[in-house]
# Entry
Amino acid sequence: MVATSLQPKTFTYDTSLDLKLDVYLPTSRQSTKNGKVPAFVHFHGGGMVTGSRNDAFFPEWINTILPAKGFLVVSADYRLLFPSTPADMVTDVHTLFSYLSTSSTPLDTWLSSLDIALDAGRFVVSGQSGGNYPARAAATNATVTPRPITWLSLFGQGSDWLSDFWLSPQNVLPYTPFFEYDQTRAKKLVEQGGGKVVSDSAYLTLQGGKVGHTTGRNNLYIHFAQTGLYVDVLLSSPGIASKLGTAPYTERLSLLPPSLLPLLLPITASTPPTYIIHGTSDHMVPIADSYKLKDDLEKEGVQVRVDWVEGAEHGLLADDFGGLVEGFDGVVGRVVKWLEKRVN
# Structure
């Protein structure tokens, strides 16, 4: 059976933490092999601190074009940074992939009733902006099973945490014109240690037309960038960003305590073939992050393909933030064709 509706069905993949995922069924059988379909597992953006599996920034092509090519799409929530940690995110990735490959779960039972089965040998993992951290965890961590056969990095955050951009204050406000920013609310959340554990913080249109969230968590990305505290929070190590920032770039990695190195999710030779998309004018996650990712992959002999989108801001927006960059459809067409080749 194939889907006749693009509406997702929601499941809870970790009942103890109420972590949810949305499933979009394939609308064609063109990628079905031996009765099984490939899975495209996507992690939403939001600077690791906010966002949701189904908010307004979910890329529409993922739940329309990919199902039409025969992919079953999974969009998953995960525990958000602060008060949760990167280690918590990695745990959630393990839990998610285990759930997707376990029989007799509510998801498996539902798919079986539709005569659909997931192909554990054809999992693709994708991360958008801050969601690239959990995607990278899936791609680089050998204990995550099933192993993804491809990793898609969409203007992904987290490939060069030791760069000057992440270790020093950055004025990102001119490049976030549609986001609410309330410094007072941000500071209050910081004083509260991030407040309660959150895994779903969907962007909403607030009074006045700005985008944000009623909890104010949307303020955290801008606040951490403006203050240069991102890496302090990421590594749960107050003061480490300023310490690293005073050292030459080539010496910074050696200054990190060994216990923190796994949180950088180092690339290994077992990392799957990777496709990187990034705008050349991105001021929220610099394209230098993706240059570093490309270099690291090539050093390990991992197949990598890149699409540097000329003039695109974060999210592949045009430089006036009035819509998507010119040529966006071509970007999507190229990556979809590549994904089809990987799973067929």
